[in-house]
Every structure is written in structure tokens, then in C-alpha cells.
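Below is how a single chain appears once it has passed through the pipeline. First comes the sequence as given, then the structure the pipeline wrote out for it. We keep one example in the README because the format questions we get most often are answered faster by looking than by reading.
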Amino acid sequence: MAGSLRSVLIAAAVTFLMIAFGVPAFSQGTPTPNFTQGTPTPNAHFPAGIKIPKHIVVVPTLPRPPEQSVEVPIPQFTPTEEQMKFAGAYIKAVNDNDAEGLRKLIAPKSLACFNSRNEYYLDQWIERQLKDQIASPYKVTVEEVGADDQPTTTLFTLPVPPTHQLDIETTLNGRRVTIGRPIAYQDGGWYEIAPCPTDAGMALAAKQQQHIIDQQNKAAKLYATLSPAFKKSLVQLLLQNKGGDACQRAATELHVDVNTGCGVVRILADDPANNPEKSPATAASDGKTSGAR
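Resulting structure:
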């Protein structure tokens, strides 16, 4: 049985989880945002409200202004040598799970916005981009971002307005998707653009984070009530790449919503006691390895 249960769960159920929680896993045009659930996300992309081409994976971190529809395909251009240099560095940082490397690719004026009050927002924004590797072969193109595409909202500002979007077409969970990153030229190089949350945005982010913690605590309490036989039945579903079925079964058994059921299944997938390939000693070793990256 190749791979850990957690890998099986994410690979098999990510689309189900996104739909169950109200977030399209792979959007066609502009998605309906979800700002309350702590769901696993393929990637985090444009700040909310910026126009995007079709087939882009988008999970906004802050609510967007009124929907901006995409009626026709947006022209794509071949990246310049400097833009390709940025793309190579970005892909390497993501595939190396290098948060510090990714931080160095963010525009200095964007980073200047963050301090002890809002640093955790930036940390989470970076972390979401590291959730999934960018598989080869991939295709890199760019598109222009005009003044009309800039968001208008009280929840965040853009210290550096993006002038372009870098599009990386790759394969994620067996599907061709496009990862879109807002970029701009500053201080002699291309950088990623990060949204700077306002007080209102931080208040919403704190509310989201508390909701996620509450959901995790609830799932942990429910997981403690599961019998060994029921855990085994869920493990079998995960090993058959039936993560969605495992979520549904847990929800039915525990008389909770699917969201909470999936939270219980994620705890089960992370528990070395349920993983035939990962003993507690191996899990501890893996934790040391991943922490050093």
C-alpha cells in the first residue's frame, strides 16, 4: 500500500471536501468563496476580487467585492526571461516546501505591511501555497492585469498593485489546473503580490480561525468515541481511495454534518496507530524531517 493514509485521503477526497464545504475545488471562471471552513485547499491564489481566467484554482482568503465575470478568454503571453526566472524560483520554493524561500519572492513593499498584529495572516497565506507540489510537465504563461481588475474592498489593500498574473498550468489530483499568482515588477525584479489585511479583514480572519479551532476540537472529541471496529472500516475506505465515502459514513455514524465527519476522518488519517505503514517512531522521524525543511 503506497503512501500514507493522509496522502490517500487528500488525493481521494479533496474535491469532495471542497464541494461539501461550499468551495469548488477546480473552478470554471469565478468561484463562490467560502470563508468559514478549515478545508484542505489545492492552493491559494489571487487576492479576492481580481479577474481570473477560466480553469484557475482559487480559494480566496478574504471576501471579494461583487462578482466580476469573465466573458471571454484573457490573452496569454510568453513570459519574459525575468518572469521565467521568478516562475522557476516560485516553483522550487513550493516543491521544496520552503516557506522562507517563498517569503523572499514577495514584494518588499507588500511585506512592509506586516507586523506582530497581522503576521499570522501572512504565514497562513504562504502555508496554503505550499500544500501541493507543482508537477512536471507544467506550462507557464502570463496575462496583464489592468486597473479595472483591481479589487475594491474594506478588508484588504494592495500596497503593490499587480500588473500581471503568472499562470502555471500543471496536474493536480489527476486534473489539469492553472495556478494563478499576482506579480509586479519592483526594485529591479518580479515579485509576488500579497494582500495586506485591514483591521476589518483581520477581525474576519480571527473569526475564521476560531471557527476552525472549534471544529477541530469538536472532531477530536468525536474521534475519541469511535470504536476500533469503526475506525478499521474507515481505514479500509481510505485505502480504497474512497475518502468521500469515509466522510459520509463518519457523519452518518456520529449524527453530524459532513464537514465535521471529514474532520474526524482527517484525525484518523493522521493517527499513526491507524496507519499500517507508519509506526509512532517513523511518524516522529517524519515530523523531524518535515520540520527541518
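The chain has two domains: 5-11+224-292, 33-198.

See the next section for the split statistics.
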